[in-house]
Amino acid sequence: MVAAEAGLQDDLISTARRRFDEAYVADEDNRAAALDDLEFIVGEQWPESVKTAREAANRPVLTINRMPQFLRQVTGDIRKTNPAIDVIAADSAAGKGMAEMVGGLIRQIEFQSDATSIYEQTTELAASCGIGNWRILSRYENSQSFDQELYIKRIPSPFSVYWDPNARDQSRMDAGYCFITEWMEVEDFKREYPNKTVVSVDTPDIGDAQRWAQSDKVQIAEYYWKTTKTVRIGRTHEGQVVEGVREDNEAFMAEVRDADVDVVMWAKVSGAEVLEGPIELKGRFIPVVAVTGEEISVGERIVRNSVIRYAKDSQRMYNYWQSANTEIIALQPKAPYKVTPKQIAGLETFWNEANDSNRPYLPYNVDPDAPPPMRETPPVPSGAMLSAIALAADDMKATTGIYDASLGERTNETSGVAIRQRQIEADISTSIYVDNLSKSIAQCGRVLLDLIPHYYDTNRVLRIIGKDGKEDMVEVNGVQSDGEYVMPVNDLTIGRYDVRVTTGPSYSTQRQEASESMLAFIQAVPQAGAVLMDLVAKNMDWPGADQVAERLEKMLPPEMQPEPEEITPELAQQMQQAQTQQAQQAQIAQQAQDVELRKAAAEAAEAEADAVKAQAEADKAQMELDAIRAQYRGAAIAPPAQWGQPPTI
């Protein structure tokens, strides 16, 4: 048994070393370029040989570092877009309300992890050197708790993470393995792992041992890798898929089958042996997320770029020409005087201080053979150098795609449309960093969704945060009974969810924009002010706005009053009085309506009676006419014309 376990350990460390070598070699050029980018950003912009030679000759070596300005533009765009995780239901067991609650839990995890800063700092690394990383970990809620929680942690150095070279997704969600490395002092390693081998640069059978050891340090690595295992899954009659179905439960399933599922393993290794693990982790994703810059496939290799990669030569030219221009103008001595020895004889004290003091005059001796002392023409800036400086500055903007309008400088564009168009061009040229961050945040959301059912699987009360930043406390994984059935309450282990990332202004900015839009609407439709002013005040961003909104809300008509969250005795009495008053008003209105109805009915009856009377009189007249006509039917003379017939002639 011990021998078998030792064999597994040997296979694991052998595979880990081989994979680490593959990742190291595949990314070696990118890592060297990334290190040069970071050193360049902090001001190491002169070749060391050139810098040493100029300093030895007492010549200026100026560094006018404009690179951070371009980086701030990229990270500033990220702060404006505010990528946020939205959770959506992915099956019938995950309702909209549960999706909103899970989204609130993820926002709480982000809040307690200060995830906004982690996202920004990681993307700044991607813009600075091409890649940055963060990870998702678990911990106990406090020292006295058995409940665990998830949190997001930044990985400060981009050089401590080695990815599977076959991974192509910007977030590295498709990676088969990953290493997070750390260098330890040899003495610290011996103290923490007293029974383990200390790797040195001469340790045999490790290949390139310098990747695992230095003269006084050793490297250890957290090694994540994916594998598969076969599990029994079942589908319930309600359509739910259950994993790990036992044989005695198969009869309760609609159908069952074997399935291969992804499993994530973890171990801590040195170059020589396994230090901790291996253990199987919860979840299906490697809990590490990358944010990358622009990546270009060149044959079988990937070339990763930063914002400033192609602007470095322009920055070097800018530094050189600024140094040369400064040398010509500022470091030259003041223009000397042209004098003869006779003119300054005995006056050397005055003339030796001519460049160090502001004397109102300089005495001299008259020399009949020479004109009065005169200065040489002072040095003038070189037009060619000034043009070269301007061209170098323009080249930096052209290679980064970020122009004056985006940098806050005055431009030759005069209209707001033209300035905005130039800003849009800059946003488009650097949009890949915002897009890649959004994809990485989406992957972070997937990892959290995958892990939440495993770490938040007990009945407890959690704090969640709404999209508007308001906090709420909810019970999860509870049950309730109606006497016959037991039903789950906010069960986080049921249902499937998915994520999407939304971008846009922050909630406070949206509030400000909403209040401005509502005020403009009220100006156009003044009568709307009576029912909108509480919403305007609620969206204002000044102290006391909420109290003003509450007071204005109480002035709304009763039918527009919101439902109270908590009914106090005083509020119940007020509501009873309001209901009584409304009932009285409704009764009065009903009585008035009844009176109007009776009055209308009486008028209708009277009109109907008049109509009957008129009809009776008309019928009587017709009968009399018919009788008269009957009397004259046999007569020789015709009836009168007024009887309705023309006279006979």
Structure explained in plain terms:
The strands form seven sheets. Strands 4, 5, 6, 7, 8 and 9 form a six-stranded antiparallel beta sheet that branches. A three-stranded antiparallel beta sheet has the order 3-2-10. A two-stranded antiparallel ribbon has the order 1-19. It starts with a helix and ends in a 17-residue tail after the last helix. It is α+β, with helices and mostly antiparallel strands and 649 residues long. Helices cover 45% and strands 19% of the residues. The protein has 18 helices and 19 strands. Residues 634-649 have low confidence and may be disordered. The chain has helices spanning 2-26, 28-41, 48-56, 67-81, 96-113, 115-129, 186-192, 312-329, 341-344, 348-352, 383-400, 404-407, 416-429, 431-455, 507-524, 529-538, 545-554, 569-632, and strands spanning 84-89, 131-140, 148-155, 161-163, 177-185, 217-235, 241-243, 255-269, 274-280, 288-292, 294-298, 301-305, 337-338, 374-375, 460-465, 471-476, 478-481, 486-489, 497-502.
